[in-house]
Amino acid sequence: MTSNSFYPIGLSGKAWTENERNQWRASQSQQRLYGDDVLPRIMALADRFEIRTYGQLNYAGEAYTLYALRNGIPDQNLPTALITGGVHGYETSGVMGALQFLETRAAEYAGKANLLVVPCVSPWAYERVNRWSYDAIDPNRSFYPDSPAIECAALMELVAAQAGSFLLHIDLHETTDSDESEFRPALAARDGEDFVPGAIPDGFYLVDDSGNSQPAFQTAIIKAVEQVTHIAPPDDDRKIIGAPVVAHGVIEYPQAKYAMCASMTGARFTTTTEVYPDSPRATSAVCNDAQVTAVCAALDFALAHA
User: Fold this and answer.
1) Does the first or last residue of the chain, that is N or C, have fewer Cβ atoms within 10 Å of its Cβ?
2) Which intervals hold domain Peptidase M14 (predicted)?
3) For the range 106-112, what are the long-range contacts, defined as Cβ-Cβ under 8 Å and sequence gap of 24 or more?
4) CA pair distance 220, 222, nearest whole angstrom
5) Each residue of 134-179: pLDDT tens digit?
6) What's the pTM value of the predicted model, to 2 decimals?
7) Domain segments of the chain as ranges
8) In the CATH scheme, what is the code of domain 31-304?
C-alpha cells in the first residue's frame, strides 16, 4: 500500500481510520475567529430580531454557541422562510451574505413572512476555512435522522420545532478553487477512492432539487443575480461541476438523496446558491451582494406564488 499521490494524509485505496482523522485535525489551524467576525454582528441585531440559541459545539475544549435569528414572534397567518449560511464554513459569502441580508434587507419582509435566519451553521469550520466539521464530516451531505454531524442535528432540531410548514429555504454556498485543490482530493483520500480532477465554473449558479424542481423560481433568482455578478457558463459538455445544465445558471441534484441542507424543511421552494469568489471578475463585496440579491429574489418570488 502506498501513500496518496494527491493528498498528504492516508494510504492509496484505504479509507481513513481515526488515526488519519486525527492527522487531519492536527493539520487544521485557526485562520479567523467566529467570536470576532460573526458574533458581534449577530448581537448587534438584538434590537431588531429575536436571537435564539439552538445548540452548542464543543470540540477538543473549544466551545461554539449556535445562533438563529427570527423577525419577531411567528405569525401563523404568514409563510415561513429559512435562510442558512456557513453550512460549509469556508464559504465566506454564505455567512457574510446572511448577515448582510439581516442588516440591510430583512426589515422589508416584516408582516410578509416569518424569517428564520441561521448565519453560520459550522463555526469550527468557519474558523479553519474548511469544508468539513471537526469529525471530517461534510455537513451538506449529513442532513438525515441521527446525523453524526452535530451541526446538522442541531439545525434539524431547530427546524422541527418551528410551528407550521416552510414555504422557502435558500442555502447560501460558494464554489471555490480550493474545492479542486484541497477539498475534493481530501474527500477521495478520506474514502479511499481515486481522485479524478474536475473543473471549477467561473460565475454564480444555483442547485435546484431534482425531486422538487421549480424552474421559474430558479430563473427569477438568476435574473436578479445577473444584475450583480456574472452567471457561470456550462462547460463543453453542457455541464457545471459534472451536472447537466437545465437552464441558464441552473443545475439539479437529488437533494434528499444526498442529504443536503436545502432538503430538510420540505419547503415548496428550495435552492442552493453557489458564488465563485475566486473569479477575477468578482470581489468579496460583489459575492456578498449576490447572496443578498438571491435571498431577496427568492423571497419575492415565493411570496408572490404562495
Assistant:
1) N
2) 30-306
3) 106/48, 106/49, 106/71, 107/48, 107/71, 108/296, 109/71, 109/81, 109/299, 109/303, 110/71, 110/72, 111/78, 112/78, 112/303
4) 6
5) 999 999 999 999 999 999 999 999 999 999 999 999 999 999 999 9
6) 0.98
7) 31-304
8) 3.40.630.10
